[in-house]
Write a structure and sequence with these properties.
Helix content: 25-40%
Order of helices and strands: HHEHEHEHEHEEHH
Radius of gyration: 19 Å
Distance between the termini: 62 Å
Number of strands: 6
Oligomer: single chain
Strand order of the largest sheet: 3-2-1-4-5-6
Number of helices: 8
Shape: globular
Strand content: 15-25%
């Protein structure tokens, strides 16, 4: 698809999904330009996490034509983030990830509005999450994923489909990664498949230095960061 100037449409990837029928769609799916325009104009998406995956998600969603985005993250930018979180610069070290990521994407993509939230996901009222059409996870914590999963499943009122809060969960570990869509009440939720995750043996340095949340984080922090300081 191209615009009037002959340039590729920003939503060309969405157009392939929304402007034509397919075999992997729901029975109520009606393709067309109105559907695409409504998704871009009215759908509100929350990105949870503004790290390596969250930065990519914000950029991709904005470039896909979605206009109403919000991002929540409790971390500040560390020097170790700069090699893989492309929205951040050296002068951003110490600043909230969510605020800097939102600002950078809005500077590069016209027409998108991104509201940042610099806080823990648990600090928000439950109703905050109910305002979004889709919640996209870019987290490195099993505990945080489980919390958002419980929140989304709590909104479900069977058989009312409009109460379903879709989750898009993604994650990486070394050179491996995964992405999946969770539809509460229809597909297995996060807790149903949590046993598929291998025990975590490595932790992101930004988590250890900034927001250690478990005893394992504290032990690893002492081993990797504080040990050399004490020995010197």
């Amino acid at each position: 698809m191209a615009n009037s100037a002959g340039q590729p449409s920003r939503s060309r990837d969405l157009d392939k999904l929304l402007l034509r029928p397919g075999n992997l769609v729901g029975e109520n799916f009606e393709p067309g330009q109105q559907l695409r325009d409504d998704l871009r104009e009215y759908v509100r998406i929350l990105v949870v996490g503004a790290g390596g995956l969250g930065c990519e998600l914000l950029k991709d969603l904005a470039l896909s034509g979605f206009k109403n985005l919000e991002v929540i993250d409790m971390d500040r930018i560390e020097v170790t983030n700069l090699n893989r979180q492309f929205l951040f610069r050296l002068q951003d070290v110490g600043k909230p990830k969510a605020e800097v990521a939102a600002k950078r994407v809005m500077e590069r993509v016209s027409g998108v509005n991104i509201v940042p939230h610099f806080c823990r996901i648990e600090d928000k009222e439950i109703d905050f999450y109910n305002d979004f059409s889709i919640i996209v996870l870019g987290l490195d914590s099993i505990e945080a994923r489980s919390y958002i999963n419980a929140v989304a499943c709590g909104f479900l009122d069977n058989p009312r489909e409009e109460t379903m809060k879709p989750l898009v969960d993604g994650g990486t570990e070394g050179f491996k990664g995964h992405a999946r869509v969770i539809l509460p009440g229809t597909t297995p939720c996060f807790e149903c498949t949590i046993w598929l995750f291998p025990p975590q043996v490595k932790f992101p340095l930004c988590t250890l230095a900034e927001t250690p949340r478990t005893a394992a984080h504290c032990i690893e922090y002492a081993h990797l960061i504080k040990w050399d300081e004490v020995m010197d």
